[in-house]
């Protein structure tokens, strides 16, 4: 069967759900993953034909896309900061906004020219943040924690696949007992970063099925009456375990930027900087400790 005929079927079945451009993107991601054929090559070879056996994964993917399963889960991988990451239902799919958070961190970290940086990522999921940071800052010592053992298994595989060493720990950041590990080891960090759960339950109506049904709720949602619970706890941890002139970085709920500033000001953090993401909404925040 001609690949261009399969592409026509994808558009017929999926355009009403995703739109033409996104369907094209899915189609070419699948053809590259399954057949090693890049988009430009298909454009140059309109009569590219695949066998009946090769059709099977394409039509299986089509069926899953009709159910709004994320393309990253269908392929089992996601791209982040120029690296490939395994993902599944236990991990959040890395997003472009989080790439911006990594860039934000690297701006200061590279200027400091500190060869012995110590970094902690809280709520690591697939490990995309610490692995990207370790790749860019190879001499840094990087720690990461998550409540989910299943997520940490994926994160460890991702570290191995990307040839970096990260010290992963299973811990609940809301549990004082779990956090005793930092006190016992007397660990102090130059950078603490977190992209914790921050979507309020009242905001679920704004989210697509592919997120609500396929990504882990525990990594996404917080109660409406205490949406900053993770930030408050992590900020308190940072007050104890950030080195002098260390920095705390967060990815945040776009609607709660001012509340986040107030929270950190109350705790006497300095040089608080709120940044917008590529979509023009408040998404990243940095605060220093003096």
Automatic annotation (TrEMBL):
Keywords: Methyltransferase, S-adenosyl-L-methionine, Transferase. S-adenosyl-L-methionine binds at residues 123-127, 146, 195. It comes from the Bacteria. One of its GO terms (biological process) is methylation. It is an enzyme of class 2 (transferase). GO terms for molecular function: nucleic acid binding; peptide chain release factor N(5)-glutamine methyltransferase activity. It catalyses: L-glutaminyl-[peptide chain release factor] + S-adenosyl-L-methionine = N(5)-methyl-L-glutaminyl-[peptide chain release factor] + S-adenosyl-L-homocysteine + H(+). Residues 115-203 form the Methyltransferase small domain. InterPro entries: DNA_methylase_N6_adenine_CS (IPR002052), HemK-like (IPR004556), N5-glutamine_MTase (IPR050320), RF_methyltr_PrmC (IPR019874), SAM-dependent_MTases_sf (IPR029063), Small_mtfrase_dom (IPR007848). Its EC number is 2.1.1.297. PANTHER family: HEMK METHYLTRANSFERASE (PTHR18895), MTRF1L RELEASE FACTOR GLUTAMINE METHYLTRANSFERASE (PTHR18895:SF74). Belongs to the protein N5-glutamine methyltransferase family. PrmC subfamily. Methylates the class 1 translation termination release factors RF1/PrfA and RF2/PrfB on the glutamine residue of the universally conserved GGQ motif. This is Release factor glutamine methyltransferase. The lineage of its organism: Bacteria, Pseudomonadati, Bacteroidota, Flavobacteriia, Flavobacteriales. The gene is prmC.
